[in-house]
């Protein structure tokens, strides 16, 4: 197995202008970590010079190590030698993954429901408050730099472009600092002019993209893509995204207070919507819907979304209306519209794939729910459980499954080292390596 320092290389997590991020395993305790390796792009080497870039890389590690905050990534080890790298906890998910953002930045990505967007935004602003208190300007706020742990906690990472307040980094004029779609106008013109309000602008772009799946139009006062009621979000976003920094929130703390007020108004609106009676819903009287129950191995190329019966953003191509009744025991629930019997709770905590397979064997071994046909569900079967929150009224509907379970293993493989999982609450599928962690929800049937 290839190694870097004392660590075993288990794969690559990503790469950027300053280097590569590897998934590594500690040889003694077998813990999975992320290692950021100093390996700058040739263009940066010729424009800035290796000595200056190495100094920036080392400073990034020091800044991350000095900050102690639950929403800020930390550094565990720094290795200087033939290959310079530092290690940090390995987060298998990010906001970029959850939103499905890819290299085609103009293409729409997955939007999030307002509750989730506000939840993540509050954590981002708390992290920025910590950074700015210590005089650090991040300068590269974007979804792929917002990592997630297994408890759905947002972690701000990648300090490679950050600088201290009033520090001049001497960036050449032909080098743009930050990501073009998220960087504010003043940072595009002069990277050293960026201050706290520059991070606030980028955070506002992230918030708009979470709510709509799109970047904001030039005229944010005429934005019909925001969740209803639109007027609830307009003033907040207008202040975040002002072209003139003087017209933005002056601090992350003040922006967080405004977001708390916005959150309270959204909750009041949602509860008012729930006070009105529901309209009658049509029931499926045509018998159980036939969903694929046999597992697939999709590979890593080709029409993967089509194979998984998903749309281009890997969301369900078919929305299933459930008709749940209590199963043979209270821990199980039966969907009359699909003929499937589900664990109501499933595993009490996330598991790697090997432990997940033990969980399924355990269900069959004890004939849970008087069944011995328990298995992993396919992606389309898990899609049938996804919670749809497209309108405020959708929040009023009771969801009978365990609300703690987000990411759930499917039976569908991607390669010999990865499987597809489904996020039940955000309604998408994505691959996960076998040493990653997801919940397990056994399924049996269909029983027609």
Notes on the protein architecture:
With 448 residues, this protein is of the alpha+beta class. It folds into three domains: 3-89, Phosphorylase Kinase, domain 1 (2-Layer Sandwich); 93-168 and 175-273, Orthogonal Bundle (Transferase(Phosphotransferase), domain 1); 304-444, no CATH class. It is 28% helix and 18% strand. The protein has eleven helices and 18 strands. The protein has helices at residues 42-48, 50-66, 95-99, 114-133, 185-189, 196-212, 231-240, 252-274, 304-307, 353-365, 379-383, and strands at 3-4, 7-15, 19-25, 32-38, 77-79, 85-89, 93-94, 136-137, 146-148, 154-156, 163-164, 324-326, 332-335, 340-343, 407-415, 418-423, 428-433, 443-444. The chain has a six-stranded antiparallel β-sheet. Helix 1 packs across helix 2, helix 4 runs antiparallel to helix 8 and helix 7 runs antiparallel to helix 8. It is globular and about 65 Å long. The protein starts with a strand and ends with a strand.
């Amino acid at each position: 197995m290839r190694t870097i320092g004392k660590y075993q290389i288990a794969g690559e997590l990503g790469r950027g202008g300053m280097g590569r991020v590897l998934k590594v395993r500690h040889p003694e305790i077998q813990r999975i970590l992320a290692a950021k390796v100093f390996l700058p792009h040739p263009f940066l080497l010729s424009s800035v010079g290796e000595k200056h870039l190495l100094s920036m890389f080392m400073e990034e590690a020091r800044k991350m190590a000095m900050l102690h905050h639950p929403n800020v990534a930390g550094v565990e080890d720094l290795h200087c030698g033939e290959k310079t790298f530092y290690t940090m906890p390995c987060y298998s998910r990010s906001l970029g993954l959850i939103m499905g953002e890819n290299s085609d930045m103009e293409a729409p990505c997955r939007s999030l429901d307002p509750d989730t967007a506000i939840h993540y935004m509050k954590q981002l602003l708390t992290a920025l408050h910590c950074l700015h208190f210590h005089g650090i300007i991040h300068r590269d706020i974007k979804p792929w730099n917002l990592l997630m742990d297994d408890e759905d906690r947002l972690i701000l990472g990648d300090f490679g472009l950050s600088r201290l307040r009033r520090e001049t980094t001497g960036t050449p004029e032909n080098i743009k600092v930050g990501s073009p779609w998220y960087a504010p106008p003043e940072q595009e013109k002069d990277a050293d002019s960026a201050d706290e309000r520059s991070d606030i602008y980028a955070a506002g772009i992230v918030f708009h993209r979470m709510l709509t799946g799109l970047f904001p139009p030039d005229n944010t006062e005429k934005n019909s893509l925001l969740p209803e009621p639109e007027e609830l979000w307009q003033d907040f976003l207008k202040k975040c995204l002002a072209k003139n920094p003087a017209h933005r929130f002056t601090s992350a703390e003040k922006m967080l207070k405004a977001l708390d007020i916005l959150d309270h108004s959204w909750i009041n609106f949602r509860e008012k919507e729930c006070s009105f009676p529901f309209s009658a819903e049509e029931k499926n009287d045509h018998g159980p819907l036939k969903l694929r129950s046999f597992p697939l191995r999709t590979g890593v190329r080709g029409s993967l979304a089509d194979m998984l019966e998903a749309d281009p953003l890997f969301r369900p191509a078919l929305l299933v209306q459930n008709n749940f009744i209590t199963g043979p025991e209270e821990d199980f629930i039966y969907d009359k519209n699909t003929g499937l019997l589900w664990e109501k709770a499933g595993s009490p905590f996330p598991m790697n794939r090997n432990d997940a397979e033990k969980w399924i064997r355990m269900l069959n071994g004890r004939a849970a729910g008087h069944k011995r046909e328990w298995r992993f569900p396919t992606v389309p079967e898990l899609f049938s459980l996804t919670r749809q929150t497209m309108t405020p009224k959708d929040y009023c509907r009771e969801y009978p499954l365990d609300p703690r379970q987000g990411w759930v293993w499917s039976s569908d493989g991607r390669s010999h080292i990865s499987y597809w999982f489904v996020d039940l609450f955000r309604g998408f599928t994505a691959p996960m390596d076998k040493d990653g962690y997801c919940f397990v929800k056994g399924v049996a049937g269909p029983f027609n």
